[in-house]
Amino acid sequence: METNISVHNKEFELFLEEETIAKRIRLMAIQLNVDYENRNPLFIGVLNGSFLFLADLMKEIDLACETEFIKIASYHGTSSTGMVKDALGMPQNLKGRDIVVVEDIIDSGLTMKYILSKIYEQEPASVSVCTLLFKPDALKEEINELNYIGFEIPNEFVVGYGLDYDGLGRNLNQIYRAV
Ligand SMILES: O=P(O)(O)OC[C@H]1O[C@H](OP(=O)(O)OP(=O)(O)O)[C@H](O)[C@@H]1O
Ligand code: HPA
Question: Range of 16's domain?
Fold first, then answer.
């Protein structure tokens, strides 16, 4: 099996194997199936990175649930507003719903903080965050909703299984870290 790869001429080494990822996702799904029994959660995947994780996770979920996707756009605002974010495609019917936000990775946590603030505007019944990867040492703000974590990883750049390096590598079926 290939353990070292290059993406954009940057070297990466194998970090999480396909079967390791699959096993962890099955366990996460079991936990969700138990925790949301008799409820109808709405899973919101955050594009682009979560597309493979959400797809594999949903195949193991046996609840009556719905799935939506959002995409976070960042652009320069005026000098007073600085960077402006926008949650494109946010469903507008979240009031009273049980929401599970699905991410590939939480790094600084700033993206998730923004997403949560937009979701709470609609007064959902509950909100949980489910992420495949979490870098605790990089976190800048506490995320109390972070109830489902696949792997806690060191503060190193990773690629594969949805995660990109400069747009490339999302199609790798294992996760690699920079060497
Ligand atoms: O915790 P943070 O430091 O905010 O980083 C995490 C975010 O960064 C990545 O998305 P990115 O903006 O690279 O877009 P992508 O999903 O299209 O790759 C990832 O998918 C998260 O959304
Ligand atoms: O380590 C990472 N890899 C790819 N995308 C990311 N977005 C935040 N952190 C990362």
Answer: 4-178
Q: Read off the pTM.
A: 0.96
CATH of residue 23's domain is 3.40.50.2020
Mutation probe of ligand 1 site: the residue of 7, 75, 107 with most atoms within 8 A of C-beta = 107
Which of 24, 8, 11, 4 minimizes the C-alpha distance to 153?
Answer: 24
d(CA 36, CA 174): 29
How many domains in the chain? Answer: 1
- Give tens-digit pLDDT for 3-17: 999 999 899 999 999
CA pair distance 4, 15, nearest whole angstrom: 10
Catalytic one of 56, 98, 104, 107: 107
The rounded Å distance from CA 19 to ligand 1 centre is 24
Q: How far is the CA of 107 from the centre of ligand 2 (A)?
A: 7
User: Tens digit of pLDDT for each residue in 141-176?
Assistant: 999 999 999 999 999 999 999 999 999 999 999 999
- Cα 12 from Cα 105, distance rounded (Å): 18
Nearest CA to ligand 1 atom 22: 111
Asked whether this complex has an ipTM greater than 0.95, the answer is: yes
Q: Is 163 in the pocket of ligand 2 (CB under 6 A)?
A: yes
